Each structure stands twice: as structure tokens, then as C-alpha cells.
Amino acid sequence: MPAQVGRRSRAILPGKTLAAFVAAVIAIFVTVGMSYQSLKARTAAVESINHSNEVRQQLNLFLSDLTDAETGQRGFLLTGTESFLEPYNHAQTSLPGELATLRRLTVAPDQQRDLDTLEPLMTQKLDELAQTIALKRAGQADAAAEIVRSGRGKLLMDRLRAVIAEMNAAEDRLLQERTTDWQDSVTSSTYVTLGGAGVLLGALMLIAWLASRDFRTREAEAWLRRVQMALNTQVQGDLRVESLGEKILGVLVESLDAQVGAMYVTEPGERLRRVAGHALEPSMEHGATLRLGEGLTGQAAKENQAVHLRDLPEEYLRVTSAVGRTKSRELVIAPASVDGTVYAVAELGFLHTVNPTEIEVLDRVSETIAIAIRS
Question: How far apart are CA 34 and CA 139, in angstroms?
Fold first, then answer.
């Protein structure tokens, strides 16, 4: 019966990486949407502030034209010179338009009521100015002066100033509220931007981490397959057990970057015989034997269980070369078994930290080594 083969995956990305990518895209859209809303709020707040400033400017212009008109009237009454009436003539032309502009700019009912009060006061004030100017032109300077001394014009100006001051106070309150709204929108916009950037950065870091992990996993798997293929190549043919041990140990030492190693095979009488060595000390003679259960190597063979040790004793499995010797930092003893029977044991010493992938490769090639030794 043919082996069942699963369908080839058509996924563009691994599940977790795809989920992180989707989360990053969602974070971008959410951040853009919230930033847009925040920008709209900021723009609206700025427009409101500008509107309040425009109303205040228009009120001040209105009061300034009235004051200038009155000043021009007083100058004309004192000197009789027509040039003093230029501010008055300007005010007659501009004040109605300025009042209309104020009505257009203000929408609050209180402000509209203030304008309803302001308009007749403006008319009365202009009439009072016009009356005194007409009397002066008619040669009735005393009558014109009497109207000024009556205080009617001053009373009108005081009421005009009071209404304008009230409207300015209302605009000040609105300006304060709108400034607060603008500050809140700026703060909110900052939080949205920073929060969105943080979420996006987190999603990108997660994607990078997942992609890196997947890449490392694929690289480790490819390396494991290369070691298996190299070992399969070396154990081909009819070889003596010593030659086979040397080839197997050579592949393991080179692939795992081990600095020292030994290869043992099981023999009748529950014994282990060393058939190959790499960078061993001269005192460790070739062909030495151990009993099953003797020492770490014998115990690993007896229990068919790999051993991984760190911080080895000073004299244990030292690395020897032409220029000196040093002790191994870590030791791995890996039995090679098939069908529950141990046929060989590899003992490897390292000067670097052994990672889980290197341990895994010994587990994967265990059966291949055992079959080669058994055959």
C-alpha cells in the first residue's frame, strides 16, 4: 500500500508570521484612521481659535472706529477744520459693514442679543455726532458744545464700550475653551502617534523574530540533512569496523566542530572497545575497552541514554595537539542504537557551548551508525 503523502501547503507565510503581518497591517490602518480623526480635531480646534481671534479683532476695530469718529468730532468742534472729520466720515461708511461682519461671525444667542443692543447704540451715537457737526457748520457752536456738555454722547460711548467688553469677555471664555480643546487634541494626537508607532514597531519586531526563527529552523533542518547525507556516504561499502569508526567519527567531529572524540563499538561479554579517536592524549591507547555500566561512557551505553555534561573535570577528555593541550568545556556521549540495541557509542568533547541542534543531529544519525556497525 503506497505511503500517504499530505497535500503541499500553499500558504504564502507560516501561520504565526502571517498573523503578525495581518496584525501589523491592521495596526497601520487603525493608526492612520485615528491619526486622521485626531488631525481633524486639531484642525477644527485651530479654526475655532482663529475664529475667536477674528471676532475679537472685529470688535476692537468697531470700537476703534467709533472712538476715532468721536475724536474727529471733538477736533472739528474745537477748530472748525473739516480735515478733522475724516475719521468720522470713515466710521459712517465702515461701521455698518463691520456690524454685519460681526453678525456673520457670531452665532451664539447671547452674542446675537448683544449685537441687537449694540446696533441702536451705534446709530444713536452717529446721530449725536452728526447733530453736533451740523450745528457747528451752521455757526451754532454753543448749541453743539451744549450737546457735548450734556453727557449724552459720553453715556452712549460708555454703553457701547460695556457691550463690546461683554462680547470680548464671552469670546475670551470661548477662546480659553477652544485652546483647551486644541491642547487636548494635540495630546491625543501625540498618544495616537506614539501608540500606533509602538504597536507597529512591536508587530514588525514580532514578524522579524518569527521570520528569523523560521529561517533558523530551516537552516538547522538543512544542516541536519547534510550531516546525515555525509554520514550515509561515508558508511557505504564493505569496511572494517576500525575504518568505519574512523569515518563516522571524522564526520561527527567535522560537522559538530568537536575538538576531541572517541568511537566505541559493543562486543560480546558486555564490553565496549575504542575503535577510533581524534586528538586524544597519547595515554589513551587505541583499542582500550570498558565494561557496560563502567564510567559515563559505559553507563550511557547500558542505559541507551545520551549524556551532556558541562564544566568537566580538569583531566577529563583533554584535547591534545602538537603545541599543547587543554581541557574540554563540554562533553556529549551519544549511544547509537537500532531496535533498542546499542551497537556503538560516540564520545565528543567541545571547547564551545553545544546547542540543541547539535544534540539533535546525534540523535538523528544514531540509527544510521548502529545499522552500519551491525552490518
Answer: 73
Q: State phi, psi for 14 to the nearest 5 degrees.
A: -60, 155
Q: What pLDDT score was predicted for residue 263? A: 92
45 closest CA partner among 210, 247, 185: 185
CB 258 within 8 A of CB 349: yes
| 214-254 residue pLDDT tens | 888 888 888 888 888 988 888 887 778 989 989 999 999 99
Q: Measured between alpha carbons, how far is 330 from 333 in angstroms, rounded to an integer?
A: 10
Backbone angle region of 277, left / alpha / beta, with phi > 0 → left and psi within -120 to 50 → alpha: beta
Question: What's the pLDDT at 12?
Answer: 55
In what helix (H) or strand (E) does residue 70 lie, and over which residues does it extend? Answer: helix 15-79
Do 279 and 271 form a contact (C-beta atoms < 8 A)? no
Say how many C-beta atoms besides its own lie within 10 A of residue 312's C-beta.
16
Question: Torsion over CA of 302, 304, 306 and 307, rounded to 10 degrees?
Answer: -20
pLDDT by residue (tens digit) across 29-61?
877 777 777 777 777 777 777 877 888 888 899
* Helical residues (DSSP H) of 235-327, grouped into ranges: 241-256, 295-303
pLDDT at residue 166 is higher than 80? yes
What's the sign of the alpha-carbon dihedral 245, 250, 256, 257?
Answer: positive
Q: Above 90 in pLDDT, residue 322?
A: no
Average pLDDT rounded to a whole number, residues 136-165: 90
**Angle, to 10 degrees, between the axis of helix 141-149 and the axis of helix 152-234?**
60
Strands 307-310 and 330-338: antiparallel
CA distance 109 to 115: 10
Residue 314 has phi, psi (to 5 degrees) of -55, -40
DSSP state, 307? Answer: E
Give the pairing of strands 341-350 and 318-321.
Answer: unpaired
Per-residue confidence band for 287, with pLDDT thresholds at 50, 70 and 90? low
Q: Which residues pair with 337 in a beta bridge?
A: 342
What are the cell numbers at 341?
540495541
Neighbours of 52 (CB within 10 A): 21
E strand or H helix that includes residue 347: strand 341-350
- pTM summary value: 0.54
